[in-house]
Amino acid sequence: MDVMNVSHQPPLSEEQLRWIEHVHQLEYVDHAVPRRTGAVAMALAMLDRELPMSSRQIASFARMGHETVRRGADALTELGLIDRHRRPRLENGVNGSA
Question: Where are the domains positioned within the chain?
Answer without folding.
Answer: 14-78
